[in-house]
Every structure is written in structure tokens, then in C-alpha cells.
Amino acid sequence: MQKPAITQVPINETIASRWSGRAYDAAKPVTQAQIIALLEAARWAPSCYGDQPWRFIVWDKNTDEYAWLRAFDCLAPGNQSWVKDAPILMLTCADTLFNHNGQPNRWGQYDTGAATENLCLQACSMGLMAHQMGGFDANKTREAFAIPAQFTPMAMVCVGYPADIATVTGEALTREMAERKRKVLGELFFTETWGKSIQT
Ligand SMILES: Cc1cc2nc3c(=O)[nH]c(=O)nc-3n(C[C@H](O)[C@H](O)[C@H](O)COP(=O)(O)O)c2cc1C
To answer: What is the pLDDT of residue 32?
Structure first.
């Protein structure tokens, strides 16, 4: 299924076609070369001071199912119901400190989000689908995968080839079928001062 963004003006095709679907093809693995391409896209994200505060852990169900299951076990049940078919799971983490001076980095999470969105767009451009999730137990991931206190677990991301919607059931199916919505431009974007909507 495709759910392209209905945009007010034409935008970049990959941005318009990326979406967070829940139907994954369990029979179609993602190759190591594809995984590296996804990570390369993340690596080239911009960051404050060029500090690259993101760290990702990748689990591939087809090469190490045990590790993938340990990551899967950290997801909220509502996410597990549909992530089950996604061959790749990732956890994104953000550094709380700047690499160059050890001071608090208040842009670490911001930059990690940028790197993750790069990865999601790269996935879409390769015919894959990526879906970010905040619904996971961060403490459980910290313990299970020895994540240092300096880093904050931010989001789990699953990646795989999209599949027929018939693989999704229950609440996940309802969400899968729901219309994609966004606030109007003027509610989010201002001109001159806070609250003065940009004219569209
Ligand atoms: C940080 C973050 C956390 C999210 N957490 C979840 C989640 O736990 N479960 C889920 O199904 N979707 C999750 N999503 C996906 C959002 O629901 C989705 O991006 C949003 O509804 C917009 O839809 P779109 O990505 O298809 O444009 C998350 C997205 C982000 C960026």
C-alpha cells in the first residue's frame, strides 16, 4: 500500500511518499549492503559542531534471530503486534555530552532525529519502509544491550519491504487504514513574530 502525502504544493518525491506503514514482508530479507546504505544516509546527517551524537544498534532477524528477539522483547505490545514481520530492528541513541569538550549537548537528540529521518528517507528511496517507534522500554534496552548512561535511547526503528495489508490485524489495521493528517501550514509556521501565520 502507498499513502503519499497530499501536499499543498509539489515537494520532493521521496519525502512525499515516505510513510510509517505497519505491513512488512517477513519473507523478504534486507541485505547487509542495504543496511549499510541506510546507515550511510544517517551518517551524513548534519549535527551541531559536527559532533555526530547518534549511535544506532542494528538487529537482523535473518542473521541473528536471538538478538532480534531480545530487541523485539523491549517493544510495547501494541508495536509487537505488527513489528513481528519486520526483518530489521534498530535502536537510535543520543549522546548527552559533546564529544569535543564533554559539556552537555542539548542538540544531541535533535541531531539524532535528523539522522534517523535521513535513514527513513533513504529506506523509502530504496523501496523499503522504515517506521520509528517511541513505544518501547528504554531501561530494558539499556540493560539488555549495555547502553552507557551517557547515551539516551531515543527510538526503535523497524525496516523491511512493505507487504500486503492483509498481514495486519486489530488496532494496527485501523491505524494503517487511517488517513494521514497534518496541521495546516499556518498553524505551524510563522512569519515576523510568534503566532503570525505564514501566508499560503
Ligand atoms: C519519535 C517517534 C515515535 C513514534 N512512535 C510510534 C510508536 O510507538 N508506534 C507507532 O505505531 N508509530 C509510532 N510513530 C509513528 C508516528 O505515529 C507517525 O510518524 C505519524 O503518525 C505520522 O505518520 P507518517 O510517518 O506515516 O507520516 C512514531 C514516530 C516518531 C517520529
So the answer is: 98
Q: Mutation test of ligand 1: which of 22, 133, 137, 168 has the most ligand atoms closer than 8 Å to its C-beta?
A: 133
pLDDT of residue 158: 98
Phi, psi of 193 (to 5 degrees): -155, 165
Beta bridge partners of 135: none
How far separated are the first and last CA of the chain, in Å rounded?
30
| Ligand 1 proximity of 134 Cβ (cutoff 6 Å) | yes
Place of cell 534517523: 116
Instruction: Judge whether 84 and 72 are in contact, CB under 8 Å.
Output: yes
> How far is Cα 152 from Cα 71, in angstroms, rounded to an integer?
16
Joined grid coordinates for residue 63: 542473521
| pLDDT confidence band for 20 (50 / 70 / 90) | very high
Residue 155 Cβ < 6 Å to ligand 1: yes
Contact indicator for 116, 91 with CB cutoff of 8 Å: no
